[in-house]
Amino acid sequence: MAVITVTAENFEEEVLNSKVPVLVDFWASWCGYCRMLAPLVEQVSEEVTDAKFCKLDTDNDPDLADKYDVNSLPTLLVFKNGELVDRSIGFVQKDQIAALVK
Amino acid sequence: MFDIIIVGAGTAGMSAAIYARRSGKSVLMLEKTSYGGQIISTPEVVNYPGIKNISGFDFATGLYEQALALDADLSYTHVIGIQKGCPEDPEGFTVLTSTEELSCRAVILATGAKNRPLGLQGEQDLIGSGISYCATCDGGFYRKKVVAVNGGGNTALEDAMYLSNLCNHVYLIHRRDTFRGEAALSEALAAKENVTFILNSEITALIPTYGSDIPGTNIRRTTLSSIFIRNRVTGEETALNVDGLFIAIGQMPDNTAFSSLVNIDEKGYIIAGENCLTNVPGIFAAGDCRTKEVRQLTTAAADGAVSATAACAYIDRNGR
Fold first, then answer.
1. Taking CA atoms, what residue in A is nearest to B133?
2. A24, A97, B69, B278: most buried, per Cβ within 10 A?
3. How is A36-52 classified by DSSP, letter by letter?
């Protein structure tokens, strides 16, 4: 499944109301490690079918980054049943991304 | 068996790979995290000759694609040591990784350097939760907040200046009474109303807030809430409430895995001159990991060329 772009408008619907676990990639265009991580999240989203993968541009939605205490990029947040259950800060390899939504 | 194994795929390592492949040698790069090294976190590179402006990511990715197009191999693994001699050649080397043993004729160490931590308790856990080593990366998340910068060189001064334009207040903490960085920068900072210097002082403890709930979540989060500062002259210790602490006290190498074989100076850098030769024939050191005066993107790339050329000559000279 492709990575879904989320914003303040559809965050509740796509992330908080999701029936399956959701991994949200908090990123920004100027962040080098975010750009390195993005294709890996994309690959994991193709391989892991029982979870949803989203990305959120923190420059467009600083309030959501603030709400979830995202102070460094890239940050991956994992939501289950509308609740934040895990986070990973910084660049990680594919297997670590997959392990987050296991 | 590879002709050359390069430890580290930063600017020096990937430049070495390009030169070695163009000389017809087989090359394997071993990298712990991601290709690119330190330059990945630099939003804008404006001092690389011939390139007016490029992001660190685009620069590193260009190098990466160039090296791979020349058929250099890259493997993500952690190198834990090097031994003289390998099954195929007593004069070669065995590179030990966390999962296997690899044989080669020559080694280029291009392990780079990383931001020096304060070494205080809880520091690693607070990275991204109040502790940062990159003001231009993370500063935006501390808009209208109170932060401290620790350090006295140009990076610390530039970080303080950058943050002073975003944050309500910036404390600049330095262990001496004068800054090593440019006077013009420290004077400009002194003139800013929202910047306070705390000199002759060092940070002695990081105080986290435990269990601050994130609204709408079941996560209890640990974030930095204050720091303890000790005045080195009076010995007085005070607490300072901050939302963020930006640490800019320089770089440090990580060459302990090789210290039984190659000579390393007291700061941990591999002792090698501009010719990139170490005390062990066949092992070369390139980029920020070696003793040198100027650590820049251009000098890392230059070391890549010098070390690869030397490694190729070493292999050819020994008729292997």
1. A72
2. A24
3. HHHHHHHHHHHH--SSE
Q: CB of B156 within 8 A of CB of B172? A: yes
A-B CB pairs within 8 A amount to: 81
Question: CA angle, corner B132, sides to B130 and B138, nearest 5?
Answer: 90
Q: Is A51 in contact with A101 (CB distance < 8 Å)?
A: yes
Judging by beta carbons within 10 Å of its beta carbon (0-12, 13-18, 19+), is residue B221 exposed, middle or buried?
A: middle
Is B167 annotated as catalytic? Answer: no
pLDDT tens for residues A42-63?
A: 999 999 999 999 999 999 999 9
Contacts of B85 (CB under 8 A, 6+ apart): B91, B92, B93, B94
CB contact under 8 A, B43 and A36: no
Q: Find out whether A28 and A84 touch, Cβ atoms under 8 Å.
A: no
Q: In this structure, are residues B166 and B146 in contact, taking their beta carbons and an 8 Å threshold?
A: no
Asked whether this complex has an ipTM greater than 0.90, the answer is no
CATH number of the domain within which A33 lies: 3.40.30.10
State whether the Cα torsion B29-B99-B80-B86 is positive or negative.
Answer: negative
Chain A neighbors of B32, CB-CB under 8 A:
none
Q: Provide the domain count of chain A.
A: 1
The Cα B292–Cα A81 span in angstroms is 54
Spatial separation of the C-alpha atoms in residues B237 and B315, rounded to whole Å: 58
Could you give all domains of chain B from N- to C-terminal order, each with its CATH number? Answer: 2-115+251-317 (3.50.50.60), 124-247 (3.50.50.60)
d(CA B34, CA B69): 18
Task: Please check whether residue A90 touches B, CB under 8 A.
Answer: yes
Domain that holds residue A86: 4-100
First CA to last CA across chain A, in angstroms?
A: 16
Give the separation between CA B214 and CA B225, rounded to whole angstroms. Answer: 15
Q: Answer yes or no: are the C-beta atoms of B145 and B244 closer than 8 Å.
A: yes
Q: Is the peptide bond before A74 cis (omega within 30 degrees of 0)?
A: yes
The model's pLDDT over B77-113, given as tens digits with 9 standing for 90+, comes to 999 999 999 999 999 999 999 999 999 999 999 999 9
